[in-house]
Amino acid sequence: xxxxxxxxxxxxxxxxxxxxxxxxxxxxxxxxxxxxxxxxxxxxxxxxxxxxxxxxxxxxxxxxxxxxxxxxxxxxxxxxxxxxxxxxxxxxxxxxxxxxxxxxxxxxxxxxxxxxxxxxxxxxxxxxxxxxxxxxxxxxxxxxxxxxxxxxxxxxxxxxxxxxxxxxxxxxxxxxxxxxxxxxxxxxxxxxxxxxxxxxxxxxxxxxxxxxxxxxxxxxxxxxxxxxxxxxxxxxxxxxxxxxxxxxxxxxxxxxxxxxxxxxxxxxxxxxxxxxxxxxxxxxxxxxxxxxxxxxxxxxxxxxxxxxxxxxxxxxxx
Length: 318
What we know:
Blueprint: H1 21-28, E1 35-38, H2 45-53, E2 59-63, H3 67-77, E3 83-86, H4 93-100, E4 105-111, H5 116-120, H6 146-152, H7 155-166, H8 171-182, H9 190-198, H10 212-223, H11 225-239, E5 240-250, H12 253-266, E6 267-268, E7 286-288, H13 297-302, E8 310-316
Helix pairs in contact: 7-8, 7-10, 11-12
């Protein structure tokens, strides 16, 4: 969700381009009369493309917990009778399907991470390049902001979150600096946190700010992203109709690892893939669709936020 595609959706707002758009559509194999779920609506780039492939009998249900996404969906697709939207986290996809009266679906798309409008709005607190409140919540109406969490979390807990969710090598040093800083003045803004991390001697990776891993870790923790993803993947797999496909676009290794494990638990491996369970021991019922896909050079050049995206797909077989 954090990236753009090389082929712009003609109806999409200029601020956001859906990543791996054509690849996602091909992986979903959209049928004109099918029922599909876009579990991470964002600003609707993927949803708009799916709707273009649906006929009058097709239906698309979209979800997002961000209130701004709900507003964007109402404006963009509110007049389309084939479209339904629920403001819910994707782990509640079973609730959305029940509300729509759907027992099963022909395809599900997860486009994980942060959308470009979220990153580009300083008021949401996702970006360390623009100063704003240190929030980082996908849904600002619920839960605890990153600033509030950092005011009370213990040093060891902060270090654990930075190490596990951000894979930050200097997690303990940063945690110690945060606790020391808040003794005199709590961290309230994105710029304050970014400057503190930079001052801890974090090595700048090519094309990345020193605070990238810290912000990723806090975002994952504040939004409970990994638990939500694991729960949502299991629910989505159970709701697929025969021939239905689950397509996931992830943006960092922790997400992708969960996706690979979820698929490996149920699916036959793609031919030649020896890292997944062998065919004779894998449970019947699902198969991997091709191999992992990454953006082409042209897409990355058009939007560098696409560079870390990985697409994986699985199909339920009769």
